[in-house]
């Protein structure tokens, strides 16, 4: 009946004391250990991120295990705590594969309901010793949105083997575990593949946003094990993607918060015409609009997070809404980040473009805004009906 | 916690109560019948305004007397001391029932003026005014704006001069006063000390709208109808006991009313956006791709706007004053109203602008023409942006003029 009203206990939309503490700890840690110069330095390394910091985050703070149940080596908090960590990571532009490992792969395993696979992999994800990703989950940009898997699985004499290719795989060249959605005679299923050079060719793509690496992954008879059942696979894939959208939304909020904060600080001290440029109304009003957009994004993100945390049936709607508002906000906030800094904002030296790249990369990661809106329309009964 | 019901439990209780006192609103299946009004500001004659006001008052009294109004007020004022967002939870349920639509004078009285009295009133004033206002036996309008003092409200020229120890005499001309024809009280922002800098010389009074010297004249709006007025105050005598807050502190009193107004405006436009989405869902032809995109966008906007409201009220519960942040909600809401107009124009095309007599088509012109009013009333969109920039983002003020 009230399908336009958020279905959530309002308390779940605001931060708990514990979450606030986690935020403070992470913000300090990123400020100390992962400033923008460190990020740039690590981008140039083979693995592309600070592996020592990765280990500290998993070990000292337990970020990786926040949303993993205790029985699988996690700390059994919820997605809401993980979202706090992701927001802070997004703010700092932390460039390690948290999203593919801790969000996508971990949730694909959890949602598959396959206890053996969970026992096998989740403890290593939680303690930071395994990097993982998913492949073939989203509609591949080139297959025109077709849900027909581009990877197929065949039962060989020694178990399943995978053939086919998946593009735009996050951390696809580096991840030690790839969860692949592949077609079988019984329909699409999820498979776990630990890529080996002989049977899996991984080609890093040149990417706009170097803080988030992507690769083309070609499976050439790669051995794999089935995860979960064929019946559950499509539901698990879809829920994993929605969880990914909620996670990305939290990152986008963090990135937008950085862009707004840095711009406000700059315009308050930069003088032209004998006064701070931040006292000009043309500047003020643009930043006020960013603030409005940021509050909208925070609200959309908080809802998607809360829905993911309690596995609400509203998650698909919330995830679509968050994807649209948070992408829009991040794009706008980073555009103003450059514009209101003037010439300095257009330089390679200045961090603004790293955030622009992140924003543009993120907004198409799990579908475009049009795709999210089309899906939302279907979910809420606004789909075009066939002509009578 | 003591006595605070779980939200779900509260909503179920509200539904049960509502089912006993009101009829359910026509649902999707019955699209096309009942009232098709989407007026933002009503186009009423004085008689219609009085009639409708009386109907709303009757409903508000039922609500109040049976414990479903004033939810966040303490028991002595008829409330239940519930967190502020319970009002929103209640509204969510009430939306499914056919209850009279509240024109602005009601939220102004209950959500703007009453809280200001709660904050600034003496004990005597609170016991005299709060219950009648929360119950809407008394209705209060805002006598703030003047021809020369709109955005720059502190420039008001209406003068209040002491007469003896226990009274004041008010003289001035107020404009754009919503609901003045049905209000029994007016909250007047006046100048009491011409010798000090403008903000320091302001004092606020509650004026009986039937006092000798008060003249109300309707002003016709761009919608064609009349919901605001000009109000002449010609030597109106006001007892000192009707002064709200200390002499010379009126600017702070005014600001608390304006802050409440912004807070209250976060839910503006949602009803009509919902209606526009119903229209999209009930069109007799398939939606085009572009229309579907626009409609989905409006849908998620209403969702986000409601979430923003819940977050602001949740912050209130946690004891944080949302203050200037409330401008965010007002700016978001006025944009929702514009996008509603845009979607409807797309969906209805020519039958929006020429009256074919068809239900739910030309009626949308009232939204189209009314919506711009809220980008002006209660502080313009530009003023809200300045508030956000200076008071939330902390940007430097304009150099002094
Ligand atoms: C439907 C409606 C109902 C109303 N109801 C009431 C009521 O009940 N009681 C009451 O007291 N008043 C009421 N008002 C009046 C309302 O508060 C004022 O109209 C409003 O504050 C703007 O003032 P103004 O009309 O004098 O416009 P102005 O202040 O002259 O503004 C004109 C334009 O200039 C812009 N502007 C002004 N100053 C600045 C600045 N510093 N920076 C940038 N731009 C600026 C404004 O944003 C606006 O676009 C109502 C108005 C409307 C439209």
From TrEMBL, chain A:
It holds the Pfam family Acyl-CoA_dh_N. This is Acyl-CoA/acyl-ACP dehydrogenase. InterPro entries: AcylCo_DH/oxidase_C, AcylCoA_DH/ox_N. Residues 16-128 form the Acyl-CoA dehydrogenase/oxidase N-terminal domain. The lineage of its organism: Bacteria, Bacillati, Actinomycetota, Actinomycetes, Kitasatosporales. Coiled coil: none annotated. Residues 237-377 form the Acyl-CoA dehydrogenase/oxidase C-terminal domain. Signal peptide: none annotated.
TrEMBL record, chain B:
Residues 141-235 form the Acyl-CoA oxidase/dehydrogenase middle domain. Residues 248-393 form the Acyl-CoA dehydrogenase/oxidase C-terminal domain. It comes from the Bacteria. Residues 47-135 form the Acyl-CoA dehydrogenase/oxidase N-terminal domain. Keywords: Flavoprotein, Oxidoreductase. The keyword Lipid metabolism does not apply. It holds the Pfam family Acyl-CoA_dh_M. This is Acyl-CoA dehydrogenase family protein. It comes from Streptomyces niphimycinicus.
